[in-house]
Task: structure prediction
Amino acid sequence: MKKKSLWQTLTGSREMSLVAVLIVLLIVITILSPSFLSPTNISQIFRNNALTLLMAIGMLCVMLTAGIDISITSTLAFAGMTIGMLQKYDVIHNTFLLFLIGTGIGIVCGLLNGVIIAKAKVAPIICTMGFMYIWRGMAYVVSGNAWASGADVAGFSDFGKEGSPGPYIILIVAYVIFFIVMKWTRFGRKIYAVGSNAEAARISGINVDRTVISVYTIMGLLAGLAGVLSVSIYASAQPNMQYAKEMDVIAACVIGGVSMNGGRGSVAGTFLGALIIAIIAKALPLVGIDAIAQNLVKGIIILAVVILNVITQRMMDHQNLVRREM
Amino acid sequence: MKKKVLGLLLAATMSIGMLAGCGGSGSADTSASTDTAATTEEAAPAADTSSEEAAPAAAASGEGKTYALVTKSAGNAFMELLGQGFKEAVEASGGTAIIKDPASATADAQISEISSLISQGVDSILVAANDENALQAVLQEASDAGIKILTVDSDVAANSRAVFVNQASTELIGQTLLDACYDIAGGEGQYAILSATSQATNQNAWIEAMKAAAEADSKYANLELVEVAYGDDEPQKSTDQTQALLEKYPDLKVICAPTTVGIAAAAKVLQDSGSSVKLTGLGLPSEMVEYIGEDDAHSCPYMYLWNMIDLGNLAGYTSVALVNGDLTGAVGDTYEAGSMGTFEVVDVNGATQVILGNPFKFDASNVQEWADKGM
Result:
């Protein structure tokens, strides 16, 4: 019990340090580009980065169990491409049904990841690497070397169109649900328990395998949902969509203070981390950094924030130790 | 029960996916890096009956030979059309076409495809290069093995290949795009370019040509290029970059996107936000149908492209001519490209090229028709 309260204080303060980083970042950007915080810009930040924001929640769950999932953007592409093709060849045009199918594909992909990792004890990075190729390959197979574009997905793309509340509603609902689940439900606590110490969790009666399978399934669900959302927002389905963007999602979590070793991280921190990534993506072209140097600057900012995180963490650990001795 | 339903769903989507695969392309070439080989027995008689006097002669010339095409990457609708045209031309000449789609749009992926083609012992390799210089060593190796090398769509260094089959001359594309910006902007004002990646050979050449054309004539003096942005051919990044352009340059009049992914992403941003900024560039009709129109409700008055099937066709006939010796790749060489007529090798800044023709204009009157053709 003592450990838990210590953990809570830590994450509480860590989020504060992220808020500080965010404020500094925003001040710098606003000086360079005064209109950055306009309502249009803010809504575009959330809309254009809805996929990263959404998948970061799933990645948080996975990383809390000391796992990782690098197959997410492949799942996204498979789900997105499938619903793109369903529309291109006029099979289904019902938005709700398309969301259901895309999310369903995501759930199946995630479930397979979970079962193989939990039951066959394959290392998460290896298992999801395999599926990274498989689902990306499926996206190509499904596409048959064709793309779905504007006219094909007309109607459906209204959901994610600029000015439509769709993507924002999905984001808000997802974050509220997971904030509650991770903080106040048994399932949420089980995830933390499995990640902190799997053996102890097992002894205390938690079905570790089932928890692991659940988190990968959740990840898959969110990746599938992100795939559908992507097609709706960009009115385009290409098999290479969001290629290599899983790193943005992992970076969002790491910036948000989620530990790669499991057991540590929060929904609020993840949100702040993803928001920092989103703001960087939006701000870089605006503040006059040369296009070819934008990735370089992005990398430097990510590393700087993570190093700052580690230093704050260490200082807080130290302070807490001192306090406990007294 | 839940699992059963999910299983069914997956099965359904997979089978739909396969149907989609059949509907989407004439060739069986669906997954990353598979061969599309056609037998000569079927193709040769078809050529005899279908086309005019040039075809039977050509049919004999390609007999028993194998012609390879290495595209930029799998899953690229643009390259699919190129491959379709290439295959038609090769089969009409009685040869066998092999089309390799690298898994990713990188030079590395192309190098491994070319290496495997060398060991397969093909007669010619046609490449749409992902990098201007990185393919040099492997192309030299192929050349040493007696394989004829040529490029299409995006060139490599001139000494690495016999000839480059160019969609339209770089200068002409630059001039055409600049004139489109000039026309849409009404003769003066700011315009920006939204490109693919900063290393894309063809994009950079076109942008340079636009700049050169702007300097060459004083009538463009009031037209100001404010920025070249790079959307990396990703919808998300292209969207970010387009919005950034709108934000940074409130007086912007025109965006020119000489890349199919970029123009579609920019068209959506402009049209959805009801911006007064107009768009032109190079785009695929099927991707742009929604956005092309003269009125304010559409973001793109007109755009350009070339006929990718024709380009593939020409590249196919050029492969055949190179292998049977009708063509050496020297400046002034002329050869028959099946039903397309006679083409001549020209020198453009020290690089030997065959040029398909002028960029083709797509506007509200013809875009639907071309989209229906699958382009």
Q: What stands out?
A: Residues 294-325 of chain A form the longest helix (32 residues). Chain A has a mean pLDDT of 89. The CA atoms of residues 30 and 104 of chain A lie 41 Å apart. The two ends of chain A are 19 Å apart (CA to CA).
